[in-house]
Design a protein that fits this description.
This protein is 88% helix and 0% strand. The chain is mostly helical. It is built from 2 helices and no strands. The longest helix is centred in the C-terminal third of the chain and has 37 residues.
Length: 69
């Protein structure tokens, strides 16, 4: 499994999410409640992807350790 490639692609997605977050934060037409409603899916998506990346790294590490035994 090419974990470096997966991590690179997820980092690209994180950058896009950050752009979306900045757009929401800079939108003066949104009040605080609307801003929070727009932010929740973005922050949840980032957290899910971070957890997935950690899981992929852990599975890869365990797989390599099993091969060494």
């Amino acid at each position: 499994m090419n974990v470096d490639y997966i991590e690179k692609k997820l980092n690209e997605i994180f950058k896009e999410l950050e752009k979306e977050v900045m757009e929401v934060l800079m939108n003066e037409n949104l009040d605080r409640k609307q801003t929070n409603l727009h932010m929740k899916p973005l922050t949840s998506t980032k957290k899910i992807l971070q957890n997935a990346l950690e899981s992929i790294k852990m599975v890869d590490r365990i797989g390599r350790e099993d091969l060494e035994k």
